[in-house]
Amino acid sequence: MSTEIRGLNEECGIFGIWNHPSAAQITYYGLHSLQHRGQEGAGIVSTDGVTLKGHRNLGLLADVFKHGELDDLVGKSAIGHVRYATAGGKSLSNVQPFLFHFQNSSLALAHNGNLINAQTLRQELEEEGAIFQTSSDTEVLAHLLKRSQTGSFVEDLKVALNKVKGGFAYMLLTENELIAALDPNGFRPLSIGKIGDSYVIASETCAFDTVGAEFVRDVEPGELIIIDDDGLHIEKFTEDVKHSICSMEYVYFARPDSNIAGINVHSARKRMGKRLAKEAFIEADVVTGVPDSSISAAIGYAEETGIPYELGLIKNRYVARTFIEPSQELREQGVKMKLSAVRGVVEGKRVVMIDDSIVRGTTSRRIVQLLREAGAAEVHVRIASPPLAFPCFYGIDIQTRSELIAANYSVDEICRIIGADSLTYLSEDGLVEAVGKPYPDEPYGGLCMAYFNGDYPTELFDYEKEYLASLEAESR
Predict the structure, then answer these.
(1) For a FRET experiment, which of 135, 168, 273, 459 has its CA 20 to 30 Å from that of 142?
(2) How far is 285 from 196, CA to CA, in rounded Å?
């Protein structure tokens, strides 16, 4: 069997607003604050209560809407999406929100996450005559929705949501309502806010600060949030729920000014650094963090050890995150372009370099090299998460076994590969304790830790089981 992980899709950002005279413009600004969640494509669909109209394209949000396209998106309600680069090719057909026109109505659909049974469902639907327009698993829900015949749109949606499995935060817009749904494990963050009489839903609470919304509550696993002219209504499409928030949201994906399950991301990362300092102290002269997601952990490490925190690495703000570059060659070039070491800070010093994770090792190796070229006497790497050794089937773009350096090499081997003087990862218990156990009575305090230990919180389907079996065979 090929070692390629099948079924992985994107980590994205979604935003929606109901009943605001500048709905499309508010959605634009909300998506702008979520741009870190997806830089491949963007789109917005609005409704005036009669028709739905949308615009989407490849590229950053500002590029997609740079020619006045927002002016055409009239109406008091809208949803939007920013898309993350995936293993597949870039295609406009996969940029969301998807917009479907039916005989008597229309539907816009946006999705953050990944369905683990998408292949099975797609095959069944195609055998029944469905014609798919995209390669995205998001489209599966629309086909399931139209095949349910309860006579109620909301009930049809509940039926469809109980057929899809995996990680999903959905947002749907019709002429009459805005609907959001979160999978039974709550892998992806999703929150509700309010601007006056207007309701807002977003992937991260940082979007609320941008658009001037007040936080109302988080969307809970298995919930269906329905917003219409009568207000906010909360229903459930399943009672079989178990909190499994993606731990990488706290480690890497989310913005530090966001709150997830009542826990501030910056504070959680700072605690990761403090715990890392207790687990992996080393004598050094300066602590520096890899911008931007590791700075909070680096501050925590410095505070706990008393070693001064310094800006030893500077980021070029006009270069995209290397984690989302679609090819290894571009990743290599991206690392060279996006970071510089500050010679005046690190020259002749023993440096502790804090990073949030090591996926492929490319970035870490280059940063260690940058610090040495700037005159660092020693470079000790400390990672504020456990080793990423298992694929994610719920929405993180980890593409192949060969790309996960921790799945193929020991910590000592990785240390040599990246050229560091020492390397230590945060323990699994350390990460769980540092985040703060948002749901203390549930496994891992309500976190999904599968990327670190292979303990997947959902039933896996045949192709995932086959893939994991192949990994075990390779390791023997």
Answers:
(1) 459
(2) 51
Peptide bond before residue 184 is cis, with ω within 30 degrees of 0: no
Is 71 annotated to bind a ligand? Reply is no
DSSP string over 95-164: -SSEEEE-SS-EEEEEEEEEETTHHHHHHHHHHTT---S-S-THHHHHHHHHH--SS-HHHHHHHHHTT-
Q: Nearest 5°: phi and psi at 218?
A: -80, 150
Residue 404's pLDDT is what?
87
Three-state SS string over 325-338 comes to CCCHHHHHHHHHHH
At residue 393, the pLDDT reads 84
356 is in an annotated binding site: yes
458: helix, strand or coil: coil
In order of their start, the domains of the chain are: 13-241 (3.60.20.10), 264-317+324-438 (3.40.50.2020)
Q: Tokens for 310?
A: 């310094």
The CA distance from 160 to 127, in Å, is 18
Q: Kindly report the number of other CB atoms within 10 A of residue 131's CB atom.
A: 7
Q: Enter the DSSP assignment of 4.
A: B
Residue 84: half-sphere exposure toward Cβ, Cα within 13 Å: 25
**DSSP symbol at 323:** G
Fill in the DSSP letter of residue 278: H
C-alpha 315/C-alpha 295 separation (Å) is: 12
Q: Is the omega angle on the peptide bond into residue 292 within 30 degrees of 0, that is, cis?
A: yes
12, 206, 246, 415: the active-site residue: 12
**What residues contact residue 446 under an 8 Å CB cut-off, 6+ apart?**
243, 244, 245, 261, 437, 438, 439, 440
Tell me the C-alpha distance between 405 and 415, whole Å: 11
Asked if 12 is an active-site residue, the reply is yes
pLDDT of 41-75, one tens digit each? 999 999 999 999 999 999 999 999 999 999 999 99
Contact in structure between 12 and 111 (CB atoms under 8 Å): yes
Q: How far apart are CA 180 and CA 170, in angstroms?
A: 5
pLDDT digits (tens, 9 = 90+) for 412-450: 999 999 999 999 999 999 999 999 999 999 999 999 999
- Asked if residues 4 and 402 have their Cβ atoms less than 8 Å apart, the reply is no
CA distance 173 to 177: 6
* Single-letter amino acid, residue 218: D
Contact at 8 Å (CB) between 290 and 313? Answer: yes
Q: How far apart are CA 154 and CA 210, in angstroms?
A: 31
**How many Cβ atoms are within 10 Å of 235's Cβ, its own excluded?**
15
pLDDT band, residue 128 (cuts 50/70/90) = confident
Task: Report residue 388 as tokens.
Answer: 């990423």
Q: Are strands 245-246 and 447-448 parallel, antiparallel or unpaired?
A: parallel
